Structure formats: C-alpha cells, structure tokens
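Q: Please design a sequence for this.
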C-alpha cells in the first residue's frame, strides 16, 4: 500500500473513530442539574412537621438518613465544601466573615460575599469547572457565586441584598420561576439556588420553636412548587434535583449559670491580644501579641469546662480545619448550647450553629430525585465533602482535585458505572495548521481526505 493510500486510510479512520464528535453527542444526552440549599435545615426538621413534598421526593428518589457537614459548621465554609469537594482547611473559606489579622479589618457576612480574594484562593467551584468544560451555569444567591475565579464569572447570577428578606415565600416562588427560565430559555446546564431559611428563623426563635416548624412547612410548600415548575417546564425527564443544606441548628442555653464569658476569666486579659474574632456563635480565633502565645494559651485552656481551646498545631486533625494559613495561632469552640462572649455579652440568638460536626444537632439533609437517581432509596449517613463528585458525575464533567470519593454516592444512581468521565480533548491553539480556528474534527477530516484523494488520483 502506497504512502498516500495509508494517509487516506488514517484520515477516514479518524472520521469513523468512536470518539469523533463525542462532546456533541454527550452534550445532547446530558441531563441538567439544580442544586438547592435550604440554609440551616437540621436533619430531623421533617420529623415534627408534616412535609408531604419532601416525603414524596424521597419516595421518588434518594434520601440520606442525615449528612455530616464539614467543620466549622458555618454557612459560607460549608456551602463552599459542597461545590468544591474540599475540606475547609483545603478550600480556605474558613469563616463567614472576611478578616485580616494584620490590618484588623473584619467584614460582616454580606460584605464578605463580594470579596473576591476571600473566595478565589485556589479552589474552583463546580460552576467554573463546568464552564471551562463547555457548559453554561448559574448561581442564584448561592454563597461564593458572585465573584470571579481565575478571572472567570458564572454565566448568570443573582446576589442577595444586605436587607434581603429571607422569609418572603412569594419571592421564593419568583426566584424559582427565574431559575426555570434560565434552564429553558438561557440554556443553562447547572444552577445553584440558595434560600436563607430555616436558618434565620432557627437563629431568632430557636430550633424547637413553633416559628421554626412553620418555616419548615413553608420550605416544604416551596419544594412542592419547585417540583411542579420542573414538570410544567418540561424538564422532569432531563433535570436532576438535589436538595441539601449546610448545617443544622442547636438551642442556645441563654440562661445557663456557666456562660462562656472571656471578660470574666480571672487569668486572661485582652491587653495580651493583637487580634480577636469572637462573639460569632460557638467558635473563636485569637492572635496573641508577640511572645505571649504560651501565656494566653495557658490562661485559656482550663478557663472554662465548656470551652475547648487549642493551638493551631494541636487542633484535632480529624476536623480538617486548622491546616490553613488563614487560621490563627489560637482557636476554640464551645460545647453545644453555649456561645462565646468576648469583651461584652452581645449574642442573643435562641439557636446557633458552628459546633463540632459530630454533634447530632449539626447534621443536615440530603434529598435527590431525577432521571439519574434510583427511586425510594434511603442511604446511610455520609460527609458533605462527597457531594461534589456526585454533582460532577451528573454533569459529565471532570472534577477538580478534591477530598471526596465518587464511590460513596455512586450507588444512588441508576447507572453506577465505575470511574470518572474522560477528560475532554484539548483545544488546539488558534490558527493551528492542523485545525484552523472554528474547524470541527469532521470538517478537518473531510478536508484532509479530499486532498489525499486528489493525490491518489
């Protein structure tokens, strides 16, 4: 066989190879994905309230007995674990508040949502990874969804305002309608949707209050509305729905005789402290002045039986939290039901989170339904760090390096084929002699074949 004939055969084989045009066929059959978070939805909130829509979703899909969040059990850190698959010490969003121990700047939660450097510090959320692999994505109020990562922004986004009313049920339905339009009219493949309840109500009234029960019923009505809108939008057979949360909620013992009050510790003084991040629930951080670390640590480590104080190096490695440059030399957390009061007693919530993630009140929910999921399956508890790999699998994208395992949630799928998706083929450089800009592999192959046929002739 002559050389031109061999080249011609190779060109034709390229055209007929199974991988040719694979991104096109894979995209055509790919299901869409909606990840919904109801902030502060404790694992057992559906047990003292009638929740017919959440119950129906469990029958139609998958339910976990409970899910264990990452530590520290706060909103921003735990939400970022869900969309990166990384423990908090690895993704670096270590607190709800931006802080700088040198400048002493501390910003509240809403301001921190817009600080790019707080979020974009090495880990890519799933919406950026999906976009880099050819998909279109959206973020509606989801923490971390309104900043750029490596100079890339989410395709479509909405950011909650400082005075946002978390409890407005009418607004919830409007937001769902917007998300449905993003899928049907804007062609999005992935949307992350966030609701600030029942967290806000749990903080204000406590997790055992009637107000919290009423809010859970509102959440359930919203799940019903969401699933109805999925059906009426024609997405029931092509959209996977995952509903979860960031953490649970515990009752604060506000009248305890042994409150954790730093300003009353006999051997401790704030004069020895260069930076403090206290009065934010049950966790705290301190930077002692130069040369005073051992003195401050000694004064605090036995100061209160409800307070657990560690140096950064001695913090429990199993919590996967302290091994990050943003963590201060001293950090601490209190027992369930207790919050940390610093210079003054300024915390008055009836419910709190931020406790050790093995505390049952910190556990949260996981529900999933759609064309990719089995029906009527209840799975054993798992860590939230594993959700990311499942989401990537549902989208057919290659995950970023992460701390999760696909095997943990793979049995929830109807087609639990092993192994991650294959990497997408690299895009040749612009103006390449092999594949000029805008040429598909099919066009390239036909062009080469035409040239070679002319030579053979």
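A: Design:
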């Amino acid at each position: 066989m002559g050389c031109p004939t061999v080249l011609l055969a190779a060109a034709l084989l390229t055209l007929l190879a199974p991988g040719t045009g694979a991104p096109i066929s894979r995209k055509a059959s790919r299901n869409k994905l909606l990840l919904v978070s109801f902030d502060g939805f404790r694992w057992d909130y559906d047990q003292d309230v009638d929740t017919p829509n959440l119950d129906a979703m469990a029958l139609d899909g998958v339910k976990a007995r409970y899910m264990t969040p990452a530590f520290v059990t706060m909103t921003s850190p735990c939400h970022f674990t869900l969309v990166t698959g990384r423990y908090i010490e690895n993704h670096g969003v270590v607190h709800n508040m931006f802080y700088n121990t040198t400048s002493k700047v501390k910003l509240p939660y809403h301001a921190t949502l817009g600080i790019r450097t707080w979020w974009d510090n090495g880990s890519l959320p799933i919406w950026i990874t999906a976009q880099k692999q050819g998909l279109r994505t959206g973020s509606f109020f989801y923490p971390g969804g309104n900043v750029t990562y490596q100079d890339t922004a989410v395709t479509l986004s909405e950011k909650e305002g400082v005075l946002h009313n978390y409890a407005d049920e009418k607004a919830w339905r409007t937001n769902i309608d917007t998300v449905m339009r993003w899928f049907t009219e804007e062609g999005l493949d992935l949307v992350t949707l966030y609701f600030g309840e029942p967290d806000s109500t749990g903080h204000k009234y406590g997790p055992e209050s009637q107000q919290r029960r009423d809010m859970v019923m509102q959440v359930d009505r919203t799940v019903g509305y969401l699933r109805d809108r999925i059906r009426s939008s024609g997405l029931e057979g092509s959209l996977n729905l995952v509903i979860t949360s960031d953490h649970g909620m515990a009752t604060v013992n506000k009248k305890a005789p042994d409150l954790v009050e730093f300003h009353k510790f006999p051997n401790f003084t704030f004069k020895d402290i260069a930076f403090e991040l206290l009065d934010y629930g049950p966790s705290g951080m301190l930077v002692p002045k130069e040369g005073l670390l051992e003195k401050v640590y000694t004064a605090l480590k036995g100061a209160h039986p409800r307070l657990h104080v560690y140096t950064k190096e001695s913090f429990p490695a199993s919590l996967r939290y302290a091994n990050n440059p943003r963590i201060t030399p001293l950090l601490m957390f209190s027992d369930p039901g207790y919050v940390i009061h610093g210079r003054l007693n300024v915390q008055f919530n009836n419910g709190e989170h931020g406790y050790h993630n093995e505390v049952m009140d910190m556990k949260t929910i996981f529900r999933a339904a759609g064309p990719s999921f089995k029906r009527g399956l209840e799975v054993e508890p798992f860590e939230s760090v594993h959700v990311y790999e499942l989401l990537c699998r549902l989208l057919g994208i290659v995950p970023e390096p992460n701390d999760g395992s696909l095997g943990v949630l793979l049995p929830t799928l109807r087609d639990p084929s092993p192994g991650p998706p294959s990497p997408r083929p690299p895009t040749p450089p612009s103006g390449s002699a092999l594949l000029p800009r805008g040429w598909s592999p099919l066009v390239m192959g036909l062009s080469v074949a035409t040239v070679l046929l002319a030579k053979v002739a």
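Q: Thanks. Anything notable?
A: The two ends are 14 Å apart (CA to CA). The longest helix spans residues 210-232.
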